């Protein structure tokens, strides 16, 4: 029979789950090194909260709702954090927190887009705007360094875009709608001009396309933005870049006026972490981006959810997207253990178990045969899992208080006294 399985979710095989855990631990280690605290929030929230005005906005339609409970699965980590801060008003400020967990969106599944996915999120509530922005960018950049992935840290400012729109003559009632069209640029490119023509007119549309296609150094882009949006509009981004100089960020920092981010709660700097990808479309090589994470600054979210007037900034790394980029399905290692203890006869099992437990208590991850099968099948099982060493015990080994250690890569075997077994694996393989 066909077993029903939801779209946009996936099972993880042992090798995939192990590698996923390694990636998460690597990212968490970086966040901890930067002094972020960790909290846990529920995976469900009130629909009233999730659909609050000026929260995720148009994306409300993607919330997984729990029927008849007025609840929904969390869309991201930021709204839950803002609710947490609003409810716990004695938190030390600035409050730096990281959280790794699942979120859900009723999106149409496609490449790098899932309905259930894991985010590694960092936020800073309170604190200096430029210093907090730079700390978030620095930590996110260091996480990608640790994973061995080179990305563009693409920066923009919603304030710059909003001020430019106003100066171009766009009415306040059309600002959000216009930014939602601009946010489609990374998928549709210059084809969005037709949408802009219809929405704000050809004159404004042409100015906007000139802006998002402007080329130059970061400093040249900041000067260009100041000319069309004003010096005060570029201050946050300029100050953030100035502080970032002290971080010696290895990832490339790029000012990109096409980075908008679709969530309504962003009010200042916005950020996407992009991996260049060239694809062939109709016989032509076209440059595309894989967005591996994003975020930005939000001034009013905590206040809008019932808390104090506290600004914040945050970024979320898309763990599932990172895993796909790292080709995690082809990872070989399936177990944290590299040692398997095999017993030749069933009456040797307790001796094998004592050996395994000596290694476990010594901090060496170790597996043991738990099935009634011959030594050949045990070795086949160990090879399938990918253990580096198999310890074999039989009547002779039990009588002499020894074990045989087989290197599954080289095939070499050594006899080792059971009392010295921990010394044989001093590096906890």
Task: Describe this protein's structure.
There is one protein chain. The chain is of the alpha+beta class and 429 residues long. It has 2 domains: 14-330, Bira Bifunctional Protein, Domain 2 (BirA Bifunctional Protein, domain 2); 339-424, 3-Layer(aba) Sandwich (Rossmann fold), CATH 3.40.50.800. The protein has 17 helices and 16 strands. The strands form 3 sheets. The chain has an 8-stranded mixed sheet with strand order 1-5-6-11-10-9-7-8, with helices on both faces. Strand 15 and strand 16 (413-417) form a beta hairpin. Helix 1 (14-33) packs antiparallel against helix 4 (129-147), helix 4 (129-147) crosses helix 11 and helix 10 (218-229) runs antiparallel to helix 11 (231-244). The longest helix is centred in the first third of the chain and has 20 residues, at 14-33. It starts with 13 loop residues before the first helix and ends in a 5-residue tail after the last helix. The mean pLDDT is 92.
List the helices and strands and how they pair.
Layout: H1 14-33, E1 37-38, E2 44-46, H2 47-50, E3 65-66, E4 71-73, H3 78-87, E5 95-104, E6 116-125, H4 129-147, E7 152-157, H5 158-167, H6 175-182, H7 185-188, H8 192-200, H9 202-212, H10 218-229, H11 231-244, E8 252-255, E9 269-281, E10 284-298, H12 301-304, E11 312-318, H13 319-325, E12 339-343, H14 349-361, E13 366-368, H15 375-385, E14 389-393, H16 395-400, E15 402-407, E16 413-417, H17 421-424
